[in-house]
Amino acid sequence: YAGPIVRRPMGLPITAGCYSAWIRTRDCSDALAIEGRDFMNTPPLKTVRFGGNVVATLAKFKQGDTSDYELLKHQLADPDIKDAQIINWLQEFRNCVTQLSKDHEQLIYLVLRLPWLGRSPAVVEEYLAFLSNLVSAQTVYLRACLKMVVSNFTPKRVKICEGGVDISDSDDDDENLPINFDQCHQALQLIARYVPSTSRFLMPILTENFPFVQKSSRTLECYVHNLLRVAVYIPSLQRHVLELIISRMLKLDVSASRGEIEEVENAVQQQEMKGEQEEEGLFDMDVCSVKSSPAGTNVMVHPVAERLDTLMVVLLAFIKDMCHVNGCLDVEQTKDLYKDLVCVFDKLILPTHASCHVQYALFYLCSFRLALAEAFLEHLWRLLQSPSHPAVLRQSAAGYMGSFLARANFLPVATVCACLDLLVPWLHLYIDSQDSGSRAYCDIMLHGPFYNACQAVFYTLIFRHRSILEGDMKKGLAYLQGLNLERIVMCQLNPLKVCLPAVTNMFAAITRKYQLVFCYTIIERNSRHVLPVVRSSVGGDCVSTNTNPLDSFFPFDPYCSDADEDDFLRGETPETKGVMGMTPGSYESHLHSPSSVGSPPIAFLQRPF
Q1: Dihedral, CA atoms, 430, 431, 436, 440, nearest 10 degrees?
Q2: Domain span holding position 129
Q3: Which residues form a coiled coil (predicted)?
């Protein structure tokens, strides 16, 4: 296969259709039965055919005689059809493929439904040859061929009924899945080779066949894995495939908040600890082990979290393998992937409120090289300062920028300071433009981007002030004093009244410690008033409400955090070393953490199914 991540060859080699060679090499029951069969003393096998050949049958059908035609359709639909029959039929259809017009649509659909996957190499070879001939001679069947292939991107559905309730889902125990998927992709590559417009017809089919997000983790994992494989050998679809996958992942992400997931996981841990205590004695104080999930597995108990983690592992493994060839970063491929992910970020992730996990795909990619991280920060900065963008997107960009600066421990201090040197002067200019005007009062609806940018600066300093000060305290203090944070805090727009209390209190403690700003007088004054946020729909004074649009989330807070691992969540001054950014090294350790899916990152196409 084309592309750097396709490393697994397809099964046995396929040679030119030599049926006798197939009989000698095929290791299955019907081949052995043919070899050792006593023809005179055994009944005929199912390879016996009725009616004429396909060419003659089509000719009779054209003349109005449909008896042999219907018989042919019946034999093609036989669930017990043998390899020899399939090969024979396909060879005949190939010889008359130019006659298979739209009039024979039902017949072609039966041929496309032949059980060719997982069969002998000879059957697979003949079927692929038939597909190639069919799409070349009769492009009217292109969509049908593509639908047939894509329908095999997930395990077959197994019907299960318990207590009168249908709980059918995918067959997770099918050992032939890797081979079947390889053969599907071989078929798609052949079709794409013979029909250049394949990508235009394929993407809608991939979208239509995407499993419902409440399907099993296994079904979603297989489908997403196969979508990403398509993006490897049809690069023009990479952005569309990523957009499709991320849009579905976002539905999962926003359907369960981080708090809800942690509550479920903690409840299970407490139940397991209680059960262990009851087993070993209620007063046995030596019991201290806590399992992450039932049976001690690394599987999330929350069903949505488990599906999302499974898909995140597949997506991050794809990103890693697309960007690295033989362990070295491929700059050009990484740049192309970055551009596609940023486009998807702008279109889907940035406007989505309260997504907690999916954005880490871009965070992980940026950790590969500093230039990528700086390009992402510059992109966010342009969004924030551009008045042509909606205020809600500018506010979201500020949130992402602050969270990235605070949490990405692969960013050097110089980059952090460079971004602060952009954000802080912009805040001062904004204050200059408002202080003398009629709108110089606290109102989130009027000054939303300003308040989010303030919170981004405060949040960044909470996590990065130690890095700025260490090494040369005098120089670091001079830099922080030069930011003139006091003017921002004391301005009439009153950002401390709008920022989240956790951020405000932590920022106040740090700035007092280093005598940069004294915030507590303002905080106490603000606490006596209700926060005005929304303007009256008919104009006039602000309407007081307790709803704060900034009370949302920090997009790059730890993906899988423990309260003991994040100082900020505990209300303590965070240590720089405690910041849980995700780097290439920490990604591997993340995958082994209690709240992550159980499989470690491995070569994308070598992931076992």
Answers
A1: 100
A2: 41-156+176-197
A3: 254-281
